[in-house]
Amino acid sequence: MPNMNGYELIKCLRVEKKHQYIPILATSIESCATAKKQGKEAGVTGWIVKPFDPAKLEVTVKRVL
To answer: Could you tell me the pTM of the whole model?
Structure first.
């Protein structure tokens, strides 16, 4: 994204009342604790490391809904 990264986008969405409780899943090649912590602080609901198994994605989506 040219103007902001994913964490910044999520923070902007979470500021708006209508987006505060919408589940947001992050997909990333990053699996380190630092990246996950940064995502959680931004407002990410769940984290999936790419490449991922479609079955794992399905389980994660069901868990956050």
So the answer is: 0.80
